Amino acid sequence: MRNSNTNNWRSTALIAGAILTAGVVTITSTTDVHADNSQNNAQVSNDQVTYDQVRATADQQLAQLQSANDSKEAQQATANEQSNAADLAQTNAQIDQLKASHAALEQEQAGAIAQAQASIAASIEAQTSAANAEYQQQINTQQQNEATQRAANDQQYAQAVSQAAENQQAVADINAQYQKALSDAANTQTSQAQAAANNYNSAVAKENDTYQGKLSAQQATNAENIKNAEASLASATANANKPYEVATTNDVAVTGRVAKPQTDFKVPAYVTKYGIHLEVRGYNGAIPVSDYTYPEFANTYYGEYPDSAVITNKAAESTPHDISEMPLDFQPGLLSYDAKNDHSEKVSADGLTADQVQVLRALALSWENGFRNNVFQNYREFYNVVNKNDGFVNVAPVDLVSTDFTDNIANQVVANRTKYNIDNNSHTVISSGMPAEATYTSVINDATKNLKKNLTSEFNGKTVYTDVNENLTTMQAGTPTLLNYAINLYNSMQGMYYGELVNPTHIGGHAVNLLCAGVRTVGIGFQKLTDEMTAKNGSGVSDRKNPSYAVTFDHVGFNIDHDANLTKEVQKRNVWGTSTVDAQLNTIKTAQYHVNKVPGTKTVTPTATDVQKATASEQQKLADVKAQAQQSLDALASAHQSSLNKLAQQYKDAKAQVKANYDVAVTKAASVRDAKIANIKKAENVKLDAKINELVPSVDPQIKQLQDQHQAVIAHGDAVLVELKAENKAAYNKLAEQFNVQLAAIQRRENAKRANEVRLANNTVVLPSAVKVANDGNIDTVAFSTASNSLQAETTGRVQTVSAPSIVKTATQTPIAVAPVVTTVNHAAENTVKSNESSAPVVTQTTAVAATTNNGTQTSVASTADNKATKADNSEKSVVKAGTVAKKQTPAKKSESSQKVDQSSMSIVALAATALLGTLGITYSSKKRHN
Fold this sequence. Notes:
Blueprint: H1 2-21, E1 28-33, H2 46-108, H3 110-140, H4 146-167, H5 169-240, E2 244-255, H6 269-272, H7 295-302, H8 354-378, H9 380-386, H10 404-419, H11 440-458, E3 464-475, H12 482-497, E4 501-503, E5 506-507, H13 509-515, E6 521-528, H14 531-535, E7 549-560, H15 564-571, H16 582-592, E8 593-604, H17 608-614, H18 616-695, H19 700-753, E9 757-760, E10 763-766, E11 825-827, E12 832-834, E13 851-852, E14 858-859, H20 903-920, E15 925-930
Parallel strand pairs: 1-15
Antiparallel strand pairs: 2-8, 3-7, 4-5, 6-7, 9-10, 11-12, 13-14
Helix pairs in contact: 1-20, 2-19, 3-4, 3-5, 3-18, 4-5, 5-18, 8-9, 8-12, 10-11
């Protein structure tokens, strides 16, 4: 019960909302209550009962009147149809009788008509046969010999004229005129054709003479042009075959002078007694122990002796004259120095410049790589012994590089050595008297710590070995030139590296350091020695006039887990800096070998292809001359043929014109003859028509009169039916108006009575008279169904009746249900009746609902009923029978709801709705129905 109340309250609230939204609304609420509340039910007013009764009476009487009108109109339509059919049958019978009489008369007079037609035909045939025969014979024989055929035609024509004269003299005259026209046309044709032929033959002969003259002249010109072109080609061919000189450029390889190391020095006995063997006779024990700490041996490397005497057998090929002649490889042997043939740049008393240092670095780098590669190629056992535990046995080393990265290391090492006064006999180590952070290993570790860290991270799980070492030698010069320093450094490195290759089990430390395959870079430093350093015993410096240098070779590299492949891959990465000696090395290489472009000349003997190319232009000219000659001849022939074609066309046109003139003359003659003969036929046919009309008169006027009389009968019947329908409609409208007046009066009384009452649940609320009841003038009349016009469907065979009209109700009334229509359909073509159909699709009806607008005026939406029919032609019959039977249906019973309203909830919503409705001027009422 609680849920039901809630739903009813919401339903009522929705109704109130709808009232506010809609402009004009009629609200009806039905609530079921228990029996003990029945004493509060409202009574239906007497006016409402009277209204329903009057409305029912109006519906019944109007329906009866409509049915009577339909019956009368159907009877009139039937009468019209019967009358029209009877008159049509009578008219058709009369027409058939007239046609039969006319046919009988024609049959009766057939003999006379045939006789007249035969007579006229014989007359026409007699007059035209001779002329037609002559015309046909003349045309067939026209192309024969003009003189002979003309005589034969004259004879035949005379015979035809003689025969025709027996029938009709007029035909003979016509044929005589026609024959003369033909003769004149033939004579004219012959003379014009001959003149055209003569003109054509004369023009052709003249054109041939002209063409032959032009052809001869052009052939002579062509022959001369071809002769000249052939002579020009022969001359060009002879010239093209002659040998000729051409300028050329030759590539000349220039090999610069490069000193070759000596291996067979002849030295004084006092040198030999110390067992110092300068010659290097190769592997297998021939390489001597190079104890270059002996002053004599050291001086030999420097190219001098202690007494300043030069080597007596100094070979010229082992003596460089400039830096560019220094060897870049590093084969065993020594170089000698000749100060008189030294063309290199000077070294100042302050020592080497930065650029000079880079030249020496470039040379020293090349020599170290030369030693490594030469030992690997020629003394492999020494190389393998050094690298047997590093993974590089029989694996070629990667060349060392000198870069900005290694220059920084070398410069820092030199600075540290200078700072701590380290001489040329001491390495850059702690034992030489310097702190650990100043040693060469410390400098290298600082420079490579990030690289090592990255490699260690990259090769996690593998051992990354650091290969670092330092070699040290002394460089000095008796003459302050760059070349003297270079030769001194070259000979010192020979003793430091080749002099230490004693045998595979006894290799000096310098050679071992350089042959280590794990190193990738070398930082070469030049430390200028002080006077105190060079004055020490064992310094090895024999000449202190010029600056002397301690040269350090600090090698750096990483070996990845003793794996040659991994190590070489890292060595080839771009992580070692940028080379700083490529320019110096390239300069020396270019001086030692380059290619020059040398200008010169050569004699060329033309080949067949050359001759062909040289004479191509003349050959083309000859071909063009020949082609032009042929084109000239072709042009003459083409022009000649064009002239002949033109003359032939002119002759053809002349002959065609002669033939056309002849045809025109013949056609004109035939036309004149045919016109005259046609006039004869026309006159004779007029006589024949008059005779036939005299024998058999026409019946068409009588038939036309009968058809007009029948149309008058149809029009009269239609007019009677239209008048009847107008009378019926007027009677129906009059009765409907009477009921409208009566119902309107009842409706005004009901509205006035309930204008201020609102029913809320069990209570009746009387509102102030804020809204005026609409006056009589604002009450709309009840719209009854329009009187049906069954005869409007006279050609369709279908007549519809209208259902009972619906009268406008007040807000408290239940609309009367629309009664369905039962129709009887009569198809004229089938003459069958279909009854008891359930609906009438032609009639549409809308039930009206009355409501109160904002200003208190009631309006109604009337129910409408439309009868629609179409008109059709049914052959010669103008009226179709139609009948209708209407049956009124009882109103449908309205369904009952079972809503139950909570009185307390309903009161609040109802009071709110009442206030709103009163403001809008809308009447709200409630009607209850008992259980």
